[in-house]
Amino acid sequence: QVQLVESGGGLVQPGGSLRLSCAASGFTFSSSTMTWYRQAPGKEREWVARMSSTGLITDYADFVKGRFTISRDNSKSTLYLQMNSLKPEDTAVYYCNAIVTLKDYWGKGTLVTVSS
Description:
Layout: E1 3-7, E2 10-12, E3 18-25, E4 34-39, E5 46-51, E6 58-60, E7 68-73, E8 78-83, E9 92-100, E10 103-106, E11 110-114
Parallel strand pairs: 2-11
Antiparallel strand pairs: 1-3, 3-8, 4-5, 4-9, 5-6, 7-8, 9-10, 9-11
């Protein structure tokens, strides 16, 4: 079955960096567009960044452009999100998403807390 497991979250000071990972299994990762979302406390889940199956096409939400970088290693079936210049408003649970045979799959998320 499809599994997505996020890791790498934690507590970081404003201006700091974190690298999130999403380990995927149960589907053909190298053929799938992969997306990062986040959900802050009391807010709706929002899209953060997306990468095509080959990694040639990326897209970012305006609020992370220039600070976050999405990447993937198809040989490891792993998606990454490098987050730099973190702000308190980046505090959220971060989820990776895959659409497999028209069905949405989500991991359980990893918590990122940006605070001094």
